[in-house]
């Protein structure tokens, strides 16, 4: 991969990016052109605010087929979850008006949405803003497939409400639902729609005339909205407009120059020219750190989260749809802010490289030696294992979406800690304090939580809005996949082996030992065979859907998911019957030992498969 910074030298730490706008443009051109080529990105847009100066530029194409170039002042990009910063801004406006309080019980204030009282502690606005309300993740309702599936915000929040799975304020777990709930709260207190609140409270005073939460965008903007692209073959493939079912969480479309006005407001005490959106004290309150899993790592402010690096405090928020990948970040001490957005899936990889390039160039870290291990990490035996993100569904049949969100922790022969995400690249770490580690080749940090002598969680400096829970061995992906594979292989011997054996006997003119039996045992293999076929059919269908289009299950009418899981439920019922017949087989002793052992193995495989599917809420549909 080409080096995005090749041919440039880090500037002095105090240098402002736009002090030499020509040099900055040359630097940015090199970075963005490399990203577009390396990651098959159709187009991108960037805006930078540096004190009173501003720079914005588009790269590549907004429409490949029409060869329409990206114009930073004209082309709208989908901002994804960067939209949440607008939600939190109007929430703080409501606090300034006295319509809301940061520490009040939002469940008592909401009228159109009823929150379950799962825990004694109420959910507050601050919990929502710091992603600590305790909701599980939920896919259904967050995105919808088309305009016809959009519902009024209050209806979607009520019908697609995730369960509360932990007390508020305990752990951060990034929550789209929580952010949308805040949008509903603001809309109710204002007596209008959320879109109107955002328009009146932010877009109008900041003259953000090319920004909207409308889905789809109005005819005024439709011709200037960038297409989104997937990777396919040699050229990106145009995707459909992406509909967000809970708009305050991520539905906004905007130009880079409009986003620059928003950035400027948060660097200049809440105002731009004659437009003011917040008091300076309120801006300070939004920037203040309010929650963190570990004091040594980045934490969360009000809506913003910390991205601090190179000894400088950075606040920001990323935004992702399937096709668009965006980021807004502020460096308040330097009076600098940046917005960048890519219109292709490759932007997910390009975005962190953009941040690295920018900071290495304009906020470089003082030269430091690469940390080296001094023996194995303290408590190496207790920190190794498997950890999974707590941003997953826990109670619904969507739980399988959390399967890839795991990190395996080990220690290599040189004493370095090694983390490896499922299907990702390994990272090496060196312990610099007890239970605190630094990335050997990067700027990230990692910490473990000790709870009365037991390691329970892993936290990353780069993702303060998520915690990683330690899994037992039986919950680890390797064990789960192993049990699944062995069980399906055993069931395959029944589904295929028994019919083949019956055909062979028929061919040879021999009879089975089961023929002539009047007891239920004559149906035992039919029951176990049907059970095996049901489970195998489910496994093949489920794997095919995951490979082709998982949204077929997760979005739209849940009837399809229900029907698929009806097959696994039939397998579970058959397993219960098979286990009962197994006991009869051994009690009756009419079969030979090899046949009894094989039948028992099939019953055990069915039972193990039931346990695995039950763990992932896939034995029957759980909404």
Write a concise keyword list for the protein shown above:
623 residues; seven-stranded antiparallel sheet; globular; single chain; alpha+beta
Task: Annotate the secondary structure layout.
Layout: H1 21-38, E1 43-50, E2 53-63, E3 68-69, E4 77-78, H2 83-97, H3 106-109, H4 125-129, E5 143-144, H5 153-159, H6 176-190, H7 194-203, E6 211-212, H8 219-222, E7 229-232, E8 235-238, E9 243-244, E10 253-254, H9 256-267, E11 271-272, E12 275-276, H10 280-287, E13 305-306, E14 315-320, E15 325-331, E16 336-342, H11 347-362, H12 380-383, E17 385-389, E18 406-411, E19 417-421, E20 427-433, E21 436-439, E22 445-451, E23 454-460, E24 468-470, H13 477-508, H14 524-548, H15 551-554, H16 559-588, H17 593-615
Helix pairs in contact: 1-11, 2-6, 2-7, 6-7, 13-14, 13-17, 14-16, 14-17, 16-17
């Amino acid at each position: 991969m080409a080096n995005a910074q090749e041919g440039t030298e880090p500037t002095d730490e105090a240098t402002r990016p736009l002090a030499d706008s020509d040099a900055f443009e040359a630097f940015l051109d090199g970075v963005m052109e490399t990203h577009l080529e390396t990651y098959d990105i159709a187009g991108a847009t960037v805006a930078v605010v540096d004190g009173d100066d501003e720079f914005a530029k588009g790269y590549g194409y907004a429409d490949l087929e029409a060869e329409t170039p990206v114009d930073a002042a004209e082309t709208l990009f989908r901002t994804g979850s960067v939209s949440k910063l607008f939600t939190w801004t109007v929430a703080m406006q409501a606090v300034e008006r006295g319509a809301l309080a940061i520490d009040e019980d939002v469940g008592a204030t909401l009228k159109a949405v009823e929150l379950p009282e799962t825990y004694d502690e109420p959910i507050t606005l601050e919990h929502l803003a710091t992603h600590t309300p305790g909701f599980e993740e939920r896919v259904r309702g967050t995105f919808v497939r088309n305009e016809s599936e959009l519902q009024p915000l209050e209806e979607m929040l009520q019908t697609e409400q995730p369960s509360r799975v932990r007390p508020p304020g305990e752990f951060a777990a990034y929550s789209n639902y929580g952010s949308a709930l805040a949008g509903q709260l603001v809309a109710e207190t204002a007596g209008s729609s959320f879109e109107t609140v955002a328009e009146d409270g932010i877009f109008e005073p900041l003259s953000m005339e090319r920004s909207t939460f409308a889905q789809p965008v109005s005819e005024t903007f439709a011709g200037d909205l960038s297409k989104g692209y997937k990777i396919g073959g040699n050229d990106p493939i145009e995707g459909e407009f992406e509909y967000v079912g809970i708009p305050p969480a991520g539905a906004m479309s905007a130009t880079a120059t409009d986003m620059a006005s928003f950035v400027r407001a948060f660097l200049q005490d809440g105002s731009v020219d004659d437009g003011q959106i917040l008091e300076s004290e309120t801006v300070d309150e939004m920037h203040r750190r309010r929650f963190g899993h570990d004091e040594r790592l980045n934490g969360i402010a009000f809506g913003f989260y910390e991205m601090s690096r190179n000894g400088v405090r950075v606040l920001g928020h990323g935004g992702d749809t399937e096709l668009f990948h965006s980021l807004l970040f502020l460096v308040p001490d330097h009076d600098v802010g940046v917005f960048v957005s890519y219109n292709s899936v490759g932007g997910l990889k390009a975005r962190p490289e953009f941040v690295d390039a920018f900071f290495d160039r304009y906020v470089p870290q003082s030269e430091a030696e690469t940390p080296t291990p001094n023996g194995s990490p303290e408590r190496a035996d207790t920190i190794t294992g498997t950890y999974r993100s707590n941003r997953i569904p826990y109670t619904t049949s969507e739980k399988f979406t959390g399967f890839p969100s795991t990190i395996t922790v080990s220690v290599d022969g040189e004493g370095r800690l090694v983390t490896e995400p499922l299907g990702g690249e390994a990272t090496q770490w060196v312990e610099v304090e007890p239970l605190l580690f630094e990335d050997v080749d990067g700027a990230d940090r990692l910490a473990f939580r000790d709870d009365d002598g037991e390691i329970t969680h892993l936290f990353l400096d780069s993702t303060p809005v998520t915690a990683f829970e330690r899994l037992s061995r039986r919950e680890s992906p390797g064990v789960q996949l192993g049990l699944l594979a062995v069980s399906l292989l055993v069931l395959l011997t029944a589904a295929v082996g028994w019919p083949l054996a019956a055909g062979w006997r028929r061919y040879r003119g021999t009879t089975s030992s089961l023929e002539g039996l009047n007891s239920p045992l004559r149906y035992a293999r039919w029951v176990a065979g049907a059970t095996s076929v049901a489970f195998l059919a489910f496994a093949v269908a489920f794997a095919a859907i995951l490979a082709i289009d998982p949204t077929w299950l997760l979005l739209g009418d849940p009837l399809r998911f229900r029907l698929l899981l009806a097959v696994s439920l039939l397998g579970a019922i058959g397993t219960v019957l098979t286990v009962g017949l197994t006991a009869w087989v051994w009690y009756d002793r009419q079969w030979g030992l090899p046949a009894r052992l094989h039948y028992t193995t099939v019953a055990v495989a069915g039972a193990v498969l039931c346990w695995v599917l039950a763990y992932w809420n896939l034995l029957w549909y759980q909404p």
